[in-house]
Amino acid sequence: MLGTGRLLTLSKQVCSLPTASFHEHRVLGFLREHAARLGLPAAQDRWGNLHVRYRHRRRGPAWVLIAHADHPGFVITHVAGQRCRARWFGRVAPAYFRGGRVRVHPVGARSVGGRITRIRQSGTTARVETLWIDAAGALAPGDLGTWDLPAFRRVGNAIITRAADDLIGCALLAATLESLVRAEASAAVTVVYTRAEEAGLLGATALARAAIIPGDHPILSIETSRELPCARRGAGPVVRLGDKIAACDPGIQQLILAAAAELSARHPGFRVQRCLMDGGTCEASSFAAFGYRTAGLAIPLANYHNMGPRGVAAERIDLRDLRAALALLFALATRRRRPGEGERACDPARLVAALARAEAQLRASVSAAPVPWDEAR
Q: Beta strand pairing status for 219-226 and 63-68?
């Protein structure tokens, strides 16, 4: 498995790339090149989602690990001198835009700073839709922009980046693939880097609807998600019980928890958390809606979508959570029990044993003569 230094390098490379919904090309280009260097087959589907496959000495259903390659950001649409208009993508509260500092990243040129002078919100959703920007240099339509924040830095166990959600998830999946290749591990894994999640789970929904992924392949969505009382930074990655609109598959959860328990037995400091992360929706729900068995794994983060307590701020995650998530994904992929076999969320033998000890008392305590029940009546 990759060491901390290589994991940080890969994370920095991915998180330093500008991205936005429908404009994930630089991130996906890097990830495609990364797969090529590993010797892994990679291809984009007709919606632009990038699929990378690792299969070595393993048959049967593969784990499908997904992460989205976009983050809230904007693209320049019109330029008049150094005044620009831009299309914003992603959910960020309007108050954060007033006078906001931004940075635009022309291809092959130095980035250009700027300041937001005006915004326009959608008439139906009230989300910010259009920006007017005074730029400090020459720009062109199609240039991609972000908040003017540090691309990536580490302070102790804190990773501070302008786009953890979900570029850290993409880096984590790239690190998982690299770990499998280096170890020549027996595993079957397909990684999908999806598009336009921030615009409404679009890439994942298109893929799920098309049923390209075999139905017996379990889906595991990897996210960086808003910290909650039950999902704290530094306390381990979070096995999601569900999100705002759907519950995760209990059998798939149990496979993840079993792998986590095995890791914890070998490494006493290893920890995971479990939480219903209902502050938003993850891509697992797109696949669940079309009949797939799904689950989610999240890295807790602060300053979700760059919305800090005192204004625009870099997102923050904990390096220990990232390392633990990599260990868990590697263990899950290489575990002897295959994902298609599943595990019961609760062993019926334990429940039946408890019933056997007390069934006589249960029957004896019935307050009235039992009447045969016909469920069909």
A: parallel
Domains of the chain, start order: 4-71+151-334 (3.40.630.10), 73-147 (2.40.30)
Contact 316, 160 (CB under 8 A): yes
- Residue 268: HSE in the Cβ half-sphere, 13 Å Cα cutoff: 0
CB 144 within 8 A of CB 72: no
58-79 b/e with 16+ CB inside 10 Å = b? beebbbbbbbbbbbbbbbbeeb
DSSP result, 59-100: -S--EEEEEE---SEEEEEEEETTEEEEEEES---GGGGTT-
List, for residues 12-66, the tens digit of each pLDDT value. Answer: 999 999 999 999 999 999 999 999 999 999 999 999 999 999 999 876 678 999 9
Query: Would the pLDDT of 375 be above 60?
Result: no
Q: What is the phi/psi pair of residue 16, to 5°?
A: -80, -10
10 Å CB burial of residue 284 (0-12, 13-18, 19+) is: buried
Residue closest to 286 by CA, chosen among 254, 237, 243 = 243
- 252: amino acid identity, one letter: I
Report the interhelical angle of 164-183 vs 4-15 (nearest 10°): 140
Give the position of tokens 């330029």: 79
